[in-house]
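Lab notebook, bench 4. The sequencing result for the construct came back, and we need a structural model before the next group meeting so we can plan mutations. Quick request posted to the team channel:

Model the 3D structure of this chain.
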Amino acid sequence: MSTTTTKSSTAQRDERQRDAAHLIHSLHNRDLQQKAHVWVKGRGVLLWNQEGKEFFDGLAGLWNVIAGHGRNELADAAAQQMRELAYASAYAGSSNRPAIELGDRLAALCYPGIQRFFFTSGGAESNESAFKTARYFAKLSGHPDKYKVIGRRWGYHGTTLAAMSATGIASYWPMFEPRVPGFPQIEGPYPYRFVPTATSPDDRRTPGQQAADLLEEAILREGPASVAAFIGEPVQGAGGVIVAPEDYWPRIRQICDRYQVLLIADEVITGFGRTGDWFALKRYGIEPDIVTFAKGITSGYFPLGGIGVNRQIAAAIDGAAKETTWTHAFTYSAHPTACAVALANLDLLEREGLVQQAGERGAYLLKKLQTLAGHPHVGDVRGLGLMTAVEFVADKGTKAEFPADQQVGNRVHAATQERGLFTRLRGDVFNLAPAFVVEERQIDRMVQILADSIESVLGPG
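Done. Here's the predicted structure in token form:
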């Protein structure tokens, strides 16, 4: 072994040792961290680790690097703004030009009924802001007992305490119980696993409508006078890229209207083009009352998120008496540098047509992934836009899952990493959602890596 190689290996070990000595990671796993990648460079849809090995970034970071790695335009926008005004408070009585311009741009891109925005530092803060705003609006509207927010199984809304309580992935709960009261859960519209509840032969409701009607049942069970809002991702992302049937969301909107329940669309992942539309519920011809966003607004180059609210909520906030003012705040709300990066990112997305491209490349990716559907342990292949997933099962006929101790998903992921593809999973559901700049030849290679990895772990198709 050469001296150069020895020094390199020693440096890599030293990085991991210093990491273990001083850092606590999200979803911390000390054993996993012993063999962690230390990412050192990114370009487009590619990442390089500390050993110089190249990987496809199969999840665009954490769904957020939508414009791809290495965009100088975004780095330059941050640097220019930092030289001019890196930070200033945006508490009432202050503002800044990038924030004002970003609000103006969002009003043109978002749902027509949503024209007012509050900025945060990320998705969990955005959802916390939405929950508080829903309760606030209920009180100002003469419904002081409306405080509950109904969520769904496999929904993911963050890991701060209230956001975790709304999240419908049970593995996030046990070590932080008790959860915040007032966040009941219903089953989500999981086409591959949803069991229709028709009780008579003349029940003409579709599975999508039946899944939506679980919301009405929950509102009636909890008491309409106690339910402030319903929160849902247009496509459930971290829960396994669950795409609702086409008639699900219009029915949800009707139910919310019927019981004066606010509809909160968690578009932290889907916002800014991931599904092929700027915002995902537009495809269903409906609007939410509150939209939460983050991730793609800056392509992950600077922390930024926010909420948009409809005119009725905005009017209530504006018209509140001093003693009922909207006393919600963050130090970094409307951060000038974050807003400047967001503006440069929106310019980039529009200039390069990346939202439309996300829809087109997503359709191509899904078509390619469907070639894996013949494998006896590939139960489902699904997606919308550049959000896709492949679900592994022990028995295709019964849809039976593998025993958890077999760690099938993790083993497939280990095999893809050996071949140069890195992503995240939900159990035995393999998520694939690259940056919008992904090329068809790169999609071909990613799908081939996944196919080879499935065969190496689960046998030939």
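Residues 3-22 form the longest helix (20 residues).
Will bring this to the meeting.
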